[in-house]
Amino acid sequence: MSGKFPLLQHEEERDVEVSWEDQSRINQFSKLNTRLDRLEDEYKAQKTEKEYLDDLTIEIELLDDDEPVLYKIGDAFVKVSLEGAQARLEKDKEVIDSCVDDLDSQITKISAEMEELKKTLYGKFGQAINLERN
């Protein structure tokens, strides 16, 4: 016995040369993976914000018409009428819905690109490469 582990001997026999195109694909996959992580974090944050706005819509409906509402704009709270708060809330919800849809579209597109890269890279490298997300 040569002193090497049988698994390592098996992997050494499967050495595959990494071409410039392969390295470019690996780099592209890595970039997409990083971007996907950021998009998914942003997606979760926007979904949470949407849930807050939905809850706020219910809360505002319970208020009296003549009561001013403190509405957060940026880092400040501003007193607005109930109607004004409801109108702003609807606009904010539309913006978030649009943002969530856009993020979902980007996530879908990037995931599809990553799947294509996975097929190509696993086809060439097999078990010698790990492209699975943690």
From TrEMBL:
GO terms for biological process: protein folding. InterPro entries: PFD_beta-like, PFDN4, Prefoldin. It comes from Coemansia asiatica. Belongs to the prefoldin subunit beta family. Heterohexamer of two PFD-alpha type and four PFD-beta type subunits. Keywords: Chaperone, Coiled coil. This is Prefoldin subunit 4. One of its GO terms (cellular component) is prefoldin complex. The keyword Chaperone applies. Gene3D superfamilies: 1.10.287.370. It comes from the Eukaryota. Binds specifically to cytosolic chaperonin (c-CPN) and transfers target proteins to it. Binds to nascent polypeptide chain and promotes folding in an environment in which there are many competing pathways for nonnative proteins. One of its GO terms (molecular function) is unfolded protein binding. Residues 29-56 form a coiled coil.
